[in-house]
Predict the structure.
Amino acid sequence: METIDRYMHAVAQALPERRRDEITRELRANILDSLESIREQQEREPTAGEVAAVLVALGHPQQVAASFLPPQQLVSADLFPLYKQSLHYGVILVFILGLIQFAISFLNSGSMDFIDLFHGLVMKGLITFAVITGLFYVFSNPPGGKPLFNPYQCWSPEKLPPVSRSWQRISSAEQGVDFASDLFFLLLLNYSFWMPSEHVSRLAVMFADPVREWIPLLSGVMIVSLLFGLWNMVYQYWTIPKLVMEALINLGAAVILLKVSRFEQILVHTDNPSVEPVEILELANHIFSAGVFWVGMWLMFMAGWNLYRIWQLSRT
Amino acid sequence: MSEEHLEKLRQELRRGILVLAVLGSLRQPHYGYSLRKQLQEAGIDIDEGTLYPLVRRLADQGLLSSEWQQGEGRERRYYQLSSEGVVLLESLGAEWQQLNKHVGKILEVENGNN
């Protein structure tokens, strides 16, 4: 009997208090019936081993307790696709925000603390994971058992994305990285608007005058690209009008960058007597010119690639 | 197909039918152990860890009524179909007969082709 008491105690521990007495009372009666049957068959009292075997056949106390309760899931099978998608977007959002924060910190102080960046991304990623999982736990186990919402209710076959080729799907991760890099360069180009004046006054280099003339136009192209990126995050597939827009953005940025790469100097010394001049400025200008040139060429190629895809889609 | 996979499919197939078998058996009152014995005698072997929670769930859904009775010096909880359970058993039974007939025909055709 002591073994049974221990078993019942272990089952009771895993049950909610309001159902504890009722379930354990019934379970005990069932166990005693099983032992009674052994007694009748063997014509003797069940041995300790036989009692243990009956309990083992019933199952682990936690398992037995759980089987008497309504099934609970961290995330229901129905909601799992949406859960995975939410985690996917959550991770991308954390990554973009982390990169923006890192970029602002770098442009502000000049320090590149990659360990801090990694630590921040991991911590924010874990918090995002916990919050999303917590929300889906509530959605999967709603109070009262009535579903809080049905995410698969509002749809119609006509509203599904008009996608006929696999490349028409836009990758969220790729779009996220594009968005973050656009934002980074937009901030870099327009540092004078947001950087504290004391930091600006301590800068050793600045954009050369001919480059500065092109910054407003390039910024305009990047703002359009950012807005277009947001649009692509909502409607993640390419259509002919979107490809035309993408081609125009790539072409616009390419023309400006190729023009800028032909200038003799991209960066020049500030006339700040308190700051030591940068010794390798000439080398840096060569590297930047080459970099800007090849980015411009890449964007030109991408504009051509967009045109090729427009042609492909127009044939279907 | 692995044994494990076969066992999983077998359990899936049995899951719905067990409810029907339990409801059918509880036209007469039974306590947990006697219900299990009756099912075993009818050729349906179900382990205690599955049967007792299933009976409890059906009772929670209002398909079974229950009462504690003293017998052979011990208390036992007797279950029996409630009026709601009787109606449901009738519908489920008819559904089962229909399904059994249709699936039987399909299996017969398959066997004939083989």
